[in-house]
Known about the structure:
It is a single chain. By secondary structure, the chain is an alpha+beta fold. The chain folds into 2 domains: 2-47 and 87-148, no CATH class; 51-84, no CATH class. It is 30% helix and 22% strand. The chain contains 5 helices and 9 strands. The chain has helices at residues 2-12, 31-38, 55-61, 70-79, 117-125; strands at 18-22, 43-46, 48-49, 83-84, 86-88, 98-99, 102-107, 112-116, 141-144. The strands form 2 sheets. Strands 1, 2, 5, 6, 7, 8 and 9 form a 7-stranded mixed sheet that branches. Strands 3-4 form a two-stranded antiparallel ribbon. The protein is elongated and about 60 Å long. The relative contact order is 0.25.
Amino acid sequence: MARNYLASHFLANKAATHLLFVDADMGFRASLIARMIDFSKDFVSTVYVKREMDVSRLLSDLRAGESEDPAQRRKAVSRNMQFVGRGLVKGEAGTVSIERGFARFEATGMGICLLSKKVFDQILTRAWPTSIRVPRLRIVNWLSMGFLTA
């Protein structure tokens, strides 16, 4: 509901060019937002860890000695983290294209998401059917791969 409210105000402001959504529990470097804007794509989001972890999977994945050593425990936790987003897009050669620290994904969450006004224009001008079935809107998301860069 809050995102709808913010989007309404954003669309009413003719001078606004982008809308930034940031969930209250997201942590990131301040430079990320400038990088997202400078990337000049209509939909830019970030990869981030899901709020929950499969503890059973973590415990069954523990290797010898990992439960005693704090550094090894961190590695085990890292191996078992799940991220918001799916479908890392690969090129024809089967490789992932990284452009200025960003890679393409098919879907992502909205934890940190920058949308240009063009995204809203596409949604608002699309011819929607009169039935309840809503067509699938295909927007390719660009996700920050900031965790790969120092």
